[in-house]
Design a protein that fits this description.
two-stranded antiparallel sheet; mainly alpha; about 0% strand; 26 helices
């Protein structure tokens, strides 16, 4: 049997599959009857072996013996190889080989199968760098720029083939979008954004000239906008993105392109960039953009351009990050507007759990910096509305989480001028425990942070001996409850605050020393005797007891086993409704 016949026999099963799926578009995923995975996962081992053997033999014969018939079915190879799940470096080499074969063939000689394989190769090149470093190259890897140029080279080859008279070579909108996407994700920043914008402009010009195959659609404009939002080396990148958005609106309203319908997904990347920026005008500009979306919806009837909950949350996040003294008030106004929309039956605009988190986070400066005694109360009321909204309809978008409870507890712990503030902090923790235990909300499972904050609130209590004793009882009960949890344990901060509570709230010296001894033993055995706990213990006990417990050693000389579980990271902080610190939980 000849080598060519052997190859033909080995690929006959694959050719049968190709004929079965020939009725679909060249850009469609493989049909369910295909032996290869359309998701890019490895195909069954026997079929992968067939593909490997076929392709390996094809390479050997073509490179060494030159016995392959011409032209070899590259479209079949592209479909089989790209979906075979072979090693990336082997796939890259063969992608380059197939691409070179198509691009270097004489004009006007591509077969229909070769033409149909071009979009498959373009898609493979565009996705080749996903999850493997983006635009960065490396040993044996292609850079984002090289991938983009490979995709654009394939598109140019199809365009040139069409001009040479091949009726099967038709470059479509999807092909241009693949080129734009490969540039947008190449990591070339402003250079890539410029190229994407040029391609989009050319597409619109060609469509205006009568070429309906390249009419820019929603995805085309989305790619161009996102390309500019990635151009971090260009100071005016957001302005360029806005220009494309305005141009998109103009060509649609002028009926120059009925597929260029502005959509909320086109505005979102720009809003996110403003929210992430440090510009003072970012909140105002993002609000103006939000109002522009509403005008398009109400005045021009472009329903898809209307803002949704996510858009409003992004604008609120922009206000939160700004640190403006009026940010809390403005965020609250936006929140109330969203809630009014909900009451009027608007499905697209309604507060969700993230909205409530942002509103509660916006109160932090008032509580922690300006010592606003009403801040904790405002946050508690907002949390109560979140709980009521979830419990009344089991709306999953309103499911509260641990972070929002920890925030409110922390606010009460820091509002020491309010009578019985520790009881209010404990009350929020009790609601959290009930939400988790009785209503099955896993996201709000109490953690060591909430328990520690309640203990801290108790330890900072002022007033009569009776009031202090009451606060200590709450601190003790909270500490014991934490110790009994199966998923969390007290940490060095918890012990430090308990020592503080012992020193400030217990007036009987014998009781204070006795409790401190027991607490020290627990702290030592848990390896949580941090510097804070050590200092608070020194303040709580007499010199004789301290000598007895530590043997007269300084903190630096204490055994490492006593402080083996001490964490030295900074305390928690919140931003945009999320806990954002290297120590986002107090852990044992």
């Amino acid at each position: 049997m000849s080598s060519a016949a052997a190859i033909s026999k080995m690929t006959s099963g694959l050719e049968t599959t190709k004929r079965r799926s020939s009725g679909r578009s060249s850009l469609s995923p493989p049909s369910s009857s295909s032996p290869f995975s359309s998701s890019g996962r490895p195909a069954p081992r026997p079929l992968r072996l067939v593909a490997c053997c076929c392709l390996a033999l094809a390479l050997v014969l073509d490179r060494r013996c030159r016995l392959l018939p011409a032209p070899f079915p590259r479209g079949l190879l592209a479909d089989a190889y790209i979906t075979s799940g072979l090693p990336p470096h082997t796939q890259r080499a063969f992608l380059r080989r197939l691409t070179d074969d198509i691009c270097n063939t004489d004009l006007g000689t591509l077969t229909p199968m070769e033409v149909s394989s071009a979009p498959v190769l373009m898609s493979a090149w565009a996705n080749e760098g996903v999850g493997r470093g983006g635009g960065r190259g490396g040993e044996g890897r292609t850079t984002g720029k090289e991938r983009a140029m490979a995709v654009e080279g394939l598109l140019k080859r199809i365009v040139d083939e069409r001009r040479a008279g091949n009726p099967d070579a038709i470059a479509r909108t999807e092909d241009y979008n693949a080129v734009m996407k490969s540039w947008a994700t190449s990591g070339e920043r402003s250079a890539a954004a410029l190229r994407v914008e040029q391609i989009l402009t050319n597409m619109q010009d060609m469509y205006a000239s009568g070429d309906n195959d390249v009419q820019p659609d929603l995805e085309s404009f989305q790619i161009a906008i996102e390309a500019w939002t990635r151009a971090t080396d260009e100071p005016n990148a957001l302005a360029r993105a806005r220009q494309i958005l305005d141009w998109m609106t103009k060509v649609y309203l002028s009926k120059a392109n009925d597929l260029a319908v502005p959509d909320a997904s086109c505005f979102r990347p720009i809003l996110k960039c403003y929210a992430a920026s440090d510009k003072l005008e970012a909140p105002i500009v993002s609000e103006h953009l939000l109002m522009h979306m509403q005008r398009l919806q109400m005045e021009h009837g472009i329903v898809s351009a209307g803002p949704d909950t996510n858009c409003f949350n992004i604008v609120m996040s922009s206000w939160l990050k700004s640190g403006d003294i009026a940010s809390e008030r403005r965020i609250r106004q936006i929140f109330e507007y969203m809630d009014e929309c909900r009451r009027r039956g608007c499905d697209d605009i309604r507060p969700d759990a993230s909205t409530y988190n942002i509103v509660i986070s916006s109160i932090a400066p008032a509580v922690k910096k300006r010592l606003d005694v009403g801040g904790a109360r405002r946050a508690d009321r907002i949390l109560a509305r979140l709980e009521e909204g979830y419990l009344s309809g089991k709306d999953e978008s309103l499911r509260p989480d641990t972070i929002v409870y920890n925030q409110v507890i922390d606010y009460w712990a820091k509002t020491q001028t309010v009578d019985e503030h520790y009881l209010k902090a404990r009350g929020v923790l009790d609601r959290q425990v009930d939400m988790h235990a009785s209503h099955g909300v896993r996201k709000c499972r109490p953690d060591v942070t909430g328990y520690t904050s309640v203990i801290g609130a108790c330890a900072s209590t002022y007033g009569s001996r009776r009031e202090k004793r009451r606060a200590f009882d709450v601190a003790h009960a909270t500490f014991m409850e934490l110790c009994k949890l199966g998923y969390a344990r007290p940490n060095d901060v918890t012990y430090g605050l308990m020592f503080k509570a012992v020193g400030r709230l217990l007036h009987n010296s014998e009781e204070r020393d006795r409790y401190a001894k027991t607490l020290f033993a627990l702290c030592r055995d848990d390896g949580c005797l941090g510097e804070m706990a050590h200092n608070r213990m020194r303040e709580a006990v007499t010199r004789e007891i301290l000598q007895e417990l530590t043997g007269g050693r300084t903190y630096a000389d204490l055994p490492e086993g006593w402080k083996g579980n001490v964490k030295t990271q900074p305390r928690k902080s919140y931003e945009n409704g999320k806990q954002v610190s290297s120590k986002d939980k107090l852990r044992p």
